Amino acid sequence: MTNVLAIARREFGAWFDSPLAYVIVAIYVILVGGFALWFDDIFSTGVVSLRTVFFWSALFLVVLVPAVTMRLFAEEYRTGGIELLATLPIRDEELVLGKFLAAVGLVTVGILCTLGYPITLAVLGVPETSASDSSLLVRLLNEGTLDLGTVLCGYLGLIALGAALAGVGIGISALTSSQIIAFLGALLVSLFPFALGNFLDRVPVELVPLAQYLSLDYHFDNLARGVLDTRDLFFYASVAALGLHVAVYALQRRRWS
Predict the structure, then answer these.
(1) Which H helix or E strand runs over 236?
(2) Which of 118, 242, 72, 217 is closest to 158 using CA atoms?
(3) CA 29, CA 25: separation in Å to the nearest integer?
(4) Under 8 Å CB-to-CB from 253, ≥6 apart: which residues?
(5) Domain limits for position 134
(6) Can you give the pTM of this predicted structure?
(7) How far apart are CA 110 and CA 64, in angstroms?
(8) CB within 8 Å of 115: residues ≥ 6 apart
(9) Which residue of 118, 123, 166, 193 has the lowest C-beta tally within 10 Å?
């Protein structure tokens, strides 16, 4: 586990030593804010709900995560850094898991940067007739109309979705030395199962249950509604594990060749 944490710290620090992390996180926050405020205007609906913010946050994770993971192995192949790593006493599983934790960490930072929306909605959701002598925190907990349980489940769902997409991105990055191919491959592989839930009406009836289960958006929608179902979390964990397994296999195959 020491090697895994060391690799994770190295990768995570490398992102913030360059402008890459700041650019990626800033673009993600701007996209989520722009679409949530411009197309849906969450502050003018009169309803204290984060469903719109969660939808755009989940959708743009499909773009953010491939941008984060595309360089993790593709860049190592291009620069020859993978040969140096091969000489170190690090197992392939540790290398993959360390990079995965770093990617999930950066994705989590981006997700947490959207916390301004629930905080603002929670404040706006306090009725104006609340007792003025009560502290704001007490008023938020007792008088606020924003369901904190739904907020927590939604953010847990975003992190779980981000972890699943990170696993997929790392698996594809380990298969190529081109960052562009790694990005586009992860984007396409992630976008199809995410969009699948919106086209269930075109799926044969007998295949609808399977299509629902394979849809990334379907599982996230459950969590965004405040329904904490371990089956949804297990699904995301399985997707991430499959992607990491592909990455380990790609590294081992490279060693054998």
Answers:
(1) helix 230-256
(2) 217
(3) 6
(4) none
(5) 2-256
(6) 0.86
(7) 9
(8) none
(9) 123
